[in-house]
């Protein structure tokens, strides 16, 4: 019998929606011109990019000139951070959080090496930064703030609007403005993003997290915010992201955002239902299992659960043998057995942090998926625990 496959790792990446594939196909075989070429083939490609840019802009309540297509979410974050600081030209102080994705965290670590000062804000037990801590962190020479919209390991949504408002007030009293970037890779296509309402200067997204293709990111840069290129070449994307545009992926990105946005409420309802069923099923049946970051407002698709006295990695492998795909912490952190930097920041007990698993849902998951997990998981957990001396001693 063919083994059932259940994909519960949608925060790492998602399947490309059939509607998106359909839309993209034309741009490999038919409309393959270089968008910079003046001939018919090029003009057709250019029109497709212009239309996609307009679509993404509209969905974010931005203008087309404010939308930059990049190579991925990581690149969007890097252009935001280094592009802004390069344009600013002076060294200064940066504020970010301890729970950022490595795209931001490691960028900030690099900034420290080259002479910037960085404050890493902590979070509460639910994974949320405090507005008060943010206010206290602002210094005379603060230049830049980068705080993610929702965390990729526990889903906690950060108070971006409130912080943007605070920053607006702070900026009114200063000569040099402090700029605000948010990594919205985990919320794009899941929450209705409105850059004006959020009040940010820059916002990063990545299509493969909302059923679009891999290798295409978006960076919103508010009109009037100056950034310098960090790579050099042609005039593409206003000279800020040189290199021949990836027409098919740009079209796919816009289409994916469009269909995700149109289905936000339905998807959310469906996914929340599945998540609650899985959470309830696990917590009722498996002892010493706790949900991480469940107390605060969080995106509906992430369920992070700690199974005490088990290694998350071992659990992941056992689930994989049963055809179930999950993750421990973030995909980038797996392979190392360091406890997740996010769970440590939330002061999750180290024993619990070691045994944490992230189940992340997507629009194609079904109730049968959850039932299958609930069928096999309890036995895997008890088998693994039976090999743990600490667990056996407790019994
Ligand atoms: C996945 C992810 C990224 C990186 O996006 P890529 O397109 O894979 O480079 C950045 N930030 C967050 C929060 C993510 O979840």
Task: Describe the protein's topology.
Layout: E1 6-7, H1 18-29, H2 40-60, E2 67-70, H3 73-88, E3 93-97, H4 102-113, E4 117-121, H5 131-137, E5 142-146, H6 160-172, E6 179-183, H7 195-198, E7 202-206, E8 217-221, H8 247-262, H9 264-285, E9 289-291, E10 302-307, H10 312-321, E11 324-325, H11 341-345, H12 350-354, E12 356-360, H13 367-386, H14 389-394
The structure holds pyridoxal-5'-phosphate.
Pyridoxal-5'-phosphate (PLP) binds next to α3.
Q: Can you put this structure into words, describing what you see?
A:
The longest helix is centred in the last third of the chain and has 22 residues, at 264-285. The relative contact order is 0.16. This protein folds into 2 domains: 6-15 and 263-394, Aspartate Aminotransferase, domain 1 (Alpha-Beta Complex); 18-262, 3-Layer(aba) Sandwich (Aspartate Aminotransferase, domain 2). The radius of gyration is 22 Å and the shape is globular. α10 (312-321) crosses α13 (367-386). With 395 residues, it is an alpha/beta fold. Helix content is 43%, strand content 13%. It contains 14 helices and 12 strands. The strands form 3 sheets. It has a 7-stranded mixed sheet with strand order 2-8-7-6-5-3-4, with helices on both faces. It binds pyridoxal-5'-phosphate. Pyridoxal-5'-phosphate (PLP) binds at residues 72-74, 101, 103, 148, 152, 183, 185-186, 206, 208-209, 217.
């Amino acid at each position: 019998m063919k083994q059932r496959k259940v994909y519960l790792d949608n925060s790492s990446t998602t399947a490309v929606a059939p509607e998106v594939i359909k839309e993209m196909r034309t741009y490999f075989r038919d409309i393959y011109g270089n968008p910079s070429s003046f001939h018919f083939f090029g003009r057709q490609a250019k029109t497709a990019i212009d239309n996609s840019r307009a679509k993404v802009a509209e969905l974010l309540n931005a203008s087309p000139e404010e939308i930059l297509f990049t190579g991925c979410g990581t690149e969007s974050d890097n252009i935001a951070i280094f592009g802004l600081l390069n344009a600013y030209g002076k060294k200064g102080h940066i504020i970010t959080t301890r729970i950022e994705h490595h795209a931001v965290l490691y960028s900030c670590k690099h900034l420290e090496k080259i002479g910037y000062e960085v404050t890493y804000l902590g979070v509460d037990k639910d994974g949320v930064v405090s507005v008060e801590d943010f206010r206290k962190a602002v210094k005379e020479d603060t230049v830049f703030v980068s705080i993610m919209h929702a965390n990729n390991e526990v889903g906690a949504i950060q108070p971006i609007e409130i912080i943007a408002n605070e920053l607006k007030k702070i900026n009114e009293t200063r000569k040099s403005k402090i700029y605000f970037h948010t990594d919205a890779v985990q919320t794009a296509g899941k929450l209705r993003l409105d850059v004006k309402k959020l009040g940010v200067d820059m916002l990063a997204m990545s299509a493969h997290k909302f059923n679009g293709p891999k290798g295409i990111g978006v960076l919103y840069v508010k009109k009037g915010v100056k950034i310098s290129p960090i790579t050099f070449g042609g005039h593409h994307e206003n000279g800020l992201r040189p290199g021949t545009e990836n027409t098919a992926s740009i079209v796919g990105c816009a289409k994916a955002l469009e269909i995700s946005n149109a289905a936000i409420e339905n998807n959310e309802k469906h996914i929340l239902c599945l998540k609650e069923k899985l959470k309830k099923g696990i917590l009722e049946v498996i002892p010493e299992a706790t949900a991480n970051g469940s107390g605060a407002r969080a995106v509906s698709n992430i369920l992070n659960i700690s199974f005490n006295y088990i290694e998350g990695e071992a659990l992941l492998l056992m689930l994989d043998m049963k055809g179930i795909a999950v993750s421990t912490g973030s995909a980038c952190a797996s392979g190392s057995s360091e406890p997740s930097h996010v769970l440590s920041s939330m002061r999750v007990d180290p024993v619990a942090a070691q045994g944490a698993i992230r189940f992340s849902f997507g629009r194609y998951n079904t109730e049968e998926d959850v039932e299958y997990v609930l069928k096999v998981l309890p036995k895997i957990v008890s088998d693994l625990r039976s090999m743990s001396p600490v667990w056996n001693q407790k019994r």
